[in-house]
Amino acid sequence: MEKSLQYWWLNVIPKEDDPDGWALSEGSAGEIESYSLYHESGNKRQIPWCFLAAKKGDIVIGYATHSHKRIEALLKVAAEQDGEDIYFEKTELLKVPVTRVELREYPELANMRYFKNPRGSLFPLTESEYVCIMNLIRAKNP
């Protein structure tokens, strides 16, 4: 039996806010980034079950936090976690990012786990949340 795709929201600290951060909006599609399952302190990241549940091929919304507060890229899980890291492949860099302010205007996203408690790195998205976000992305990035 084939598993169905899952949808995820990934918080990424921009490189300009943290030297160890990512530059989601730079580079090109096809680049693969590793993301540690642990903080620098050695503690597991918030909501650790998400890192274990994410499977190769799952679709990921790449959200730049801190000074950016916007969706900057689409990704997919390139390789499942190996006990230390999980791997994401950039599939599309958005020419026009979607801001947090814009996302908050949609009542369909009011119960999104990230909006309920933004502490964490990887959050599950429901299919309807994903579709709503993608409709907004495609309206700005046809």
Describe this structure in words.
With 142 residues, the chain is of the alpha+beta class. The protein has one domain: ph1033 like domains (ph1033 like fold, Roll), CATH 3.10.590. 20% of the residues lie in helices and 32% in strands. It has 4 helices and 6 strands; from the N terminus they run ββαβββααβα. A 6-stranded mixed sheet has the order 2-5-4-3-1-6. The model has no long low-confidence stretch (mean pLDDT 93).
Protein topology:
Blueprint: E1 7-12, E2 32-36, H1 48-53, E3 59-64, E4 70-79, E5 85-99, H2 100-104, H3 113-116, E6 122-125, H4 127-140
CATH homologous superfamily heading = ph1033 like domains
Helix share, percent: 10-25%
CATH domain class name: Alpha Beta
Query: Runs with pLDDT <50, length 5+?
Result: none
Global mean pLDDT = 93
Order of helices and strands: EEHEEEHHEH
Count of helical segments? Answer: 4
* Biggest sheet layout: 6 strands, mixed
CATH topology: ph1033 like fold
Descriptors for this entry?
single chain; 142 residues; alpha+beta; ph1033 like fold; 6-stranded mixed beta sheet; 4 helices; 20% helix
